[in-house]
Amino acid sequence: MSNDKLKLLGIKEALDKIEIYSNDFNEAEDFYHDSKSFDASMMQFVVIAEMIEKLSQEFKNSHNEVQWQKIKDFRNIIAHNYFGIDPDEIWDIIINKIKPLQIQINEYLI
Predict the structure, then answer these.
(1) How far is it, in rounded angstroms, from Cα 68 to Cα 20?
(2) CA within 13 Å, CB half, 28
(3) pLDDT single digits (tens) 39-84
(4) Which end of the chain is more exposed for a tag (fewer CB within 10 A), N or C?
């Protein structure tokens, strides 16, 4: 199995965990106030960025429909501005961005 494929599997696993951790909530505030679920999800966003960092540049260039750099930059916001994170922004990402990224990653793994 290629190195890129292993990193994609890591991204897939992290995305799946975020989906599981957030699945019981209907809104940002409830999710944010469940610190265990929220913190676990934030860690998975960090994992995703770390896996993206390790993907080959060739792979990222050939699959530029994904905003790799934007996802990596989000990790910096989480890591360096943790107490300034907007729960509504996180919730929007979970509701609107996770599923399309999961689909894209799954297609790369086929």
Answers:
(1) 23
(2) 12
(3) 999 999 999 999 999 999 999 999 999 999 999 999 888 888 767 7
(4) C
